[in-house]
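Today's session is about reading a structure prediction critically. Students often jump straight to the picture, but the first step is always the sequence itself: look for stretches that repeat, for charged clusters, for runs of hydrophobic residues. Only then move on to the predicted structure, which in these notes is written as discrete structure tokens rather than atom positions. Here is the chain we will use throughout the hour.
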Amino acid sequence: MNPFRSFSILIALLLTLALPTKAQNMPNADGVILPQYPGGISALTAFISRHMQYPPYCQQHYIEGRVIVNLIVEADGTVQHTEVLRSAHPLLDAEALRIIGYIPRWIPGTKEGKPVRVQFQQPVTFRIPNKIIAHRGLWDAPGSAQNSIAALTKADEAGVYGSEFDVQITADGVAVVNHDATIFGLRIEDTTYQQLRKLRLLNGEPLPTLEQYLKHAQKLKNNTRLILEIKPHRSADNEQRCVDEVLRLVKKYRLEERTDYISFSKNICQMLPARIVQEAKVAYLGGDLTPQQVADMGLDGIDYEQSVLRKHPEWIDEARQLRLTVNVWTVNDDNDLRYFINKEVDYITTNRPVEAMQLAR
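Below is the predicted structure for this chain, in token form.
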């Protein structure tokens, strides 16, 4: 296993029985009071967290998911007949079954004051917090440069969760990887690729096209996730052209399930949800919308500059309640990294991905 991936794991447990104590003691529609773990939900969560072992393969490959287990608590409080109703991954399924089967006796359910056999479903969610994203790739390294293919390669070799990069469309419809709207004084969306193709990055690489970038991404050993930022353009037509070309190329290179999308443009963000696969996510970068407003747009997450989330720390919890992901950028200082690691945000985008992974372990 890559040593940088041996960071600490949070096992978040979404329990069917995670109800207020008063509600747990109320009969259901069949007149049954549900079984309870001695000490309540907090004790059960502590027990599972203490005994659960995150499968190393899933940890190494950033595999998360929600396993729903069907189980029966017998009248004597023992747990029997566990089975997976909804799978996340075979290894996660096996671990969920193992730990649920390992749970000691419950306080049995009752009906009319008598212990009864009760069947119910319990989701167990495996989540790895603080996944690190290399901002414009791992560019602060020998032979690398921002948004270069070398930076993508080095990010993958370092074992980061994701590598972020920026895409714009040229006047003749070629998607290129570059952060600024201009390069060497030429505005990309007003310039043909023929005029740009001879330009060089700081490491000597040619300005990469998105096609070249994705073709290389196919070959990466560790399958680093691609965090594709579609830059705002001066016209809605150019934004549409850029989105169309991005999605065409991502599909061509069969990277649909490995690519997430981010943008400062609300227009671009709203184009994407209906056109991407379920495994891909769309997050808004602007920082001027509340989590509720982002959710109302049909997006998957917020991806905000660190000062925004420092000013509105409550947005982190609000986003979680709305089932939005939370990414923060660009976090480079150790104290800032520790702050957001402790906040257990989903993703941290940084120019220091190797150091950030070490802190997040």
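Discussion point for the tutorial: The radius of gyration is 24 Å.
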